[in-house]
Design a protein that fits this description.
about 750 residues; alpha+beta; 26 helices; 10 strands; about 10% strand
Length: about 750
């Protein structure tokens, strides 16, 4: 400022001194009397002109005081960007703008976001961090829940083992069927008494004897029969055999009483039924010895009785034959009476009666003993079944208690998961608000930093970096949000699936328990029916098989169900609250360094204004000719080095013309680099506008490195609409360029 003021002060001093001298000269009239008036007037006019010029110069100096010095202008221009830097910055800005999000996408993105009022309204109903922590403190620990599940599983396994052991101790269907078959094969007491009542008594024998032929009938029959000699022979044979009394009684039993075949059949049936006792004896080890003795005795008595019956049969047949033969020989009545007296003398009736009674008593005793043994076994079986039923009832009650506890535990687990999901959603909403607040703070910070920067180049580079960072941050933020949302969705879906699966398992277990309870009740009813009446073989087998199948089905279903260990492993795999909090903290840390959407939109708007202003000044295109070959005397433009406005400058490879669509003022640059002087012409729509004469004479020097200096030209042209620009060349093979810039 002082340097600028120095010439102004000096000129004012000189002006004051010159004015004083001229006034002194004019005022000293005696000295000017001899001078002509015209000269005096001329000097006065000259003085006035000097005064006017002096005032003009002062005004000019005053106006020049606000302008910068040449050195300052040079230093300021040195700090500014040149044309190459500006072109490079404009090209980079254009590339970055091509990759930016347009206004519509930003507007749609902003429309998808929640407003501040809605966010505040939603946050008012959310839970705070302190309430969330207090709620977590009151939650059930995972280890405690695992221990409870483990204890429940152990109790269920013990119940299963006890049921299986109790079922193994029960009598099997095969054993019960064999026992039932043996019991059904034996005769009851009523049947045995009825069979014995059907036997002939002494009175019935006497009555039957009275119905036989009398003495007159015998005499009439014997009158025509065998003689005495045959009767004597017969009597001698009879005396050597059985007694007369025994013969009479056997004959009466065979002929007049019940049939011997019927008696034999009844005895054989009864004895055959009793012989099946061996099957029952094999099932009860406690009465094996008695059963064996009974079997031996029964076999011996059966053999003796069979032999005795066979002997009686043979003797009776022989006596019949002898009697018929004697009757045929017509024995006398006296001989018959004598023979009857001899038979009566040899009566063995008492021995036969004693043998029959003793056999009958032994059989009845054996039957009663077996019946008592069967009754005792049935009582023991009934007691065992009742004990098992009591044990199963106790287990069912414990299992129902375990079922209630499982339901309560599942209910609490469902409530806890639901509350955790709600709290997680609340924490996510709160995290979004905090992230938005932090992002807005970062954007404000970036805005302040951008406002503090004064240089245009630094602002452009900083804005480009900020935009790139904002874009990368936005992509990363979107990816993080999507990833977190997917994770939360997966967590909610997996939690819902686990809860639904647990509910289904509880329902299935409840249904199975109800079914088992019904089955046990049915078994208990069957046992009560068994106590009141005789058990049928088919019903018992069906119930036993049904119970066995149901138990096996229950065991298979239990094995197919997910165990507590599997559920715990699945829960361990899922993300817990610490993982979610850690992910939210990472997200908060990343969001703290981000910029808000509103500030980003403002910055993009400002940058778009700057870019529009820069783009209007940088509509530039340049093409190269490298091959040295011509097409009909014109240069084919092979390479396009830059074209900031391809919609205005239409270029096709190896074509000789460039089409400029928009009319207006253009700055054209073209040239060739050859060793000799060449003729170059610029054509617009086929008409020459610049030729070698227009360029002026140049002296082209030679350089050791080659063609350093070329024949170039730079001019301003006013081009019409759809102007086709081409360059002709006449000379040796070389290289060239063509550049256009719209002003």
């Amino acid at each position: 400022m002082n340097n600028r003021d120095m010439p102004l002060s000096r000129s004012s001093e000189h002006e004051v001194q010159g004015t004083a001298i001229v006034e002194d000269l004019l005022n000293s009239l005696p000295e000017w009397r001899s001078v002509q008036d015209i000269v005096r007037l001329s000097i006065k006019a000259l003085t006035d002109l000097a005064k006017f010029q002096n005032s003009s110069i002062k005004e000019l100096e005053y106006s020049q005081s606000d302008f910068a010095m040449k050195s300052e202008v040079v230093s300021a221009l040195a700090m500014k960007a040149n044309l190459a830097d500006l072109s490079r910055a404009i090209s980079e800005t254009r590339c970055s703008l091509d990759n930016k999000v347009n206004y519509e996408e930003i507007r749609s993105f902003l429309d998808d976001r929640v407003t501040r009022n809605d966010l505040l309204h939603l946050l008012q109903g959310k839970v705070s961090v302190e309430e969330f922590r207090t709620a977590i403190e009151f939650k059930v620990d995972v280890k405690e829940m695992q221990n409870e599940f483990r204890s429940l599983r152990n109790s269920f396994e013990e119940l299963k083992m006890q049921v299986s052991t109790s079922l193994q101790q029960c009598i099997t269907a095969r054993e019960f069927g064999a026992l039932q078959r043996i019991v059904e094969g034996k005769a009851e007491i009523a049947e045995m008494n009825a069979a014995l009542n059907e036997k002939a008594t002494k009175t019935s024998v006497a009555n039957a004897m009275h119905k036989k032929a009398n003495k007159a009938d015998v005499e009439e029959m014997l009158s025509e029969k065998a003689n005495v000699s045959l009767v004597n022979g017969l009597s001698s044979a009879i005396e050597s055999k059985v007694g007369v009394a025994s013969f009479n009684m056997l004959a009466a039993e065979v002929d007049k009483k019940a049939d011997t075949a019927h008696v034999e059949r009844l005895l054989s049936i009864e004895l055959g039924k009793k012989s099946d006792q061996t099957d029952l004896e094999s099932l009860y080890s406690a009465v094996n010895s008695l059963k064996k003795e009974f079997e031996i005795k029964l076999q011996q008595q059966s053999i003796l009785l069979g032999n005795y019956i066979n002997d009686l049969k043979s003797e009776t047949e022989m006596q019949k034959l002898a009697l018929t033969n004697a009757m045929e020989k017509k024995a006398e009545f006296r001989d018959v009476e004598k023979l009857s007296e001899m038979i009566l003398k040899k009566s063995d009736t008492e021995e036969l009666n004693y043998l029959v009674l003793s056999t009958k008593n032994e059989i009845s005793n054996l039957v009663q003993g077996h019946q008592s043994a069967i009754k005792q076994d049935m009582k023991r079986l009934e007691n065992a079944v009742l004990e098992q039923l009591g044990f199963l009832d106790g287990k069912m009650r414990t299992f129902e208690g375990d079922q209630d506890s499982i339901k309560d535990l599942l209910k609490t687990t469902n409530e806890r998961h639901r509350v955790e999901l709600e709290e997680l959603a609340k924490s996510m909403d709160k995290a979004k608000t905090e992230d938005a607040r932090a992002l807005r703070y970062d954007i404000d910070k970036i805005q302040r930093e951008l406002d503090d920067n004064k240089r245009v180049k630094y602002e452009e580079s900083k804005s480009r970096q900020s935009i790139q960072e904002i874009k990368a941050i936005r992509e990363e933020l979107d990816f993080k949000y999507d990833q977190l949302e997917n994770k939360l969705k997966d967590m909610s879906i997996s939690t819902k699936e686990i809860l639904m699966r647990n509910e289904r398992e509880v329902e299935i277990i409840t249904g199975n328990i109800k079914a088992r309870t019904e089955d046990l009740q049915y078994v208990q009813n069957c046992i009560e029916d068994f106590k009141s009446s005789s058990i049928k073989k088919n019903d018992w087998e069906m119930q036993a098989l049904k119970l066995h199948e149901e138990i096996e089905k229950l065991g298979k279903e239990i094995l197919l169900k997910a165990s507590i260990k599997d559920i715990c492993t699945l829960l361990d795999i899922k993300a817990n609250i610490d993982d979610v909090n850690h992910a939210l903290e990472d997200l908060h840390g990343e969001l703290d360094t981000k910029i808000s959407v509103d500030e980003l939109a403002d910055k993009l708007k400002e940058q778009s204004c700057i870019n529009d202003a820069l783009c209007s000044e940088n509509c530039v295109a340049r093409w190269l000719w490298k091959s040295g070959e011509l097409k009909t005397g014109c240069i084919p433009w092979e390479i396009q080095t830059i074209n900031t406005c391809p919609e205005n400058f239409i270029w096709e490879k190896d074509k000789t013309s460039i089409l400029s669509l928009s009319p207006g003022l253009y700055f054209v640059m073209f040239g060739v680099f050859s060793r000799k002087k060449a003729v170059v012409q610029l054509l617009v729509n086929g008409e020459i506008v610049i030729s070698e004469g227009n360029m002026g004479g140049k002296i082209l020097g030679k350089h050791s490195s080659g063609n350093v200096v070329g024949c170039t030209c730079a001019e301003f042209l006013s081009l019409p609409t759809r102007a086709r620009i081409s360059v002709t060349y006449s000379g040796e093979s070389c290289e060239g360029f063509l550049g256009l810039k719209k002003l």
